[in-house]
Design brief:
Blueprint lengths: L1 H24 L18 H4 L3 E5 L2 E4 L2 E4 L4 H22 L4 H27 L4 H27 L7 H24 L1
Antiparallel strand pairs: 1-2, 2-3
């Protein structure tokens, strides 16, 4: 039991660090805001524990991380969507070399992969361990299906200059849809 609590505390700390790093990487304000104060924990275990540490808007309560602003995930997804729309507009409207299109499509793919990881990380604190384990099992299946669909999309242009653009755009499209599904699920 003690080992399980230590593992949970370690997981919470690791995810809090990941959120902090993501916020810095994405230029979000989360890392520069004042530490969380007076946040009410959302579960009984957290409610019975004292706050142990605060940073970047996150507070650790007995190993459970609680975000002071429950809509941060929504703001993050909205920001990612705006960035995505800008990249898509550039790909559609700007005069770009194939290399530039490949680079932008890779940036779009990476953007949605980061968003998916962020949303999944936020969901861990809103779900029971059992439900989150079920979600992660479903996520592994989804990833395999996505990768197969991306591979299939690239077959028509395999070996050609459009290959990277094609597979990146398909991966980004599928992952964007998944991020929105996950976001709606966690609301």
């Amino acid at each position: 039991m003690e080992e399980a609590i230590m593992n949970k505390n370690l997981q919470a700390l690791m995810l809090a660090v990941i959120f902090l790093v993501l916020s810095v990487v994405n230029g979000a304000a989360m890392a520069t805001q004042a530490p969380a104060e007076g946040i009410a924990p959302t579960d009984e275990a957290a409610a019975s524990s004292e706050k142990t540490e605060t940073f970047g808007g996150w507070a650790l309560y007995g190993g459970a991380s609680v975000c002071e602003d429950q809509d941060r995930t929504g703001a993050f997804v909205s920001s990612i969507t705006q960035q995505s729309d800008a990249i898509k507009a550039s790909l559609e409207n700007d005069v770009l070399t194939q290399l530039e299109m490949n680079e932008q499509s890779q940036a779009l793919r990476d953007l949605w992969d980061r968003a998916m990881n962020y949303v999944l990380g936020a969901m861990q604190f809103k779900m029971s361990e059992e439900k989150f384990a079920e979600l992660m099992a479903a996520q592994e299946l989804w990833l395999a299906e996505r990768d197969a669909a991306v591979e299939e999309a690239g077959k028509a242009v395999e070996g050609g200059s459009l290959y990277a653009l094609t597979v990146n755009m398909e991966a980004a499209r599928l992952t964007e849809t998944r991020v929105n599904e996950l976001y709606e699920l966690q609301r």
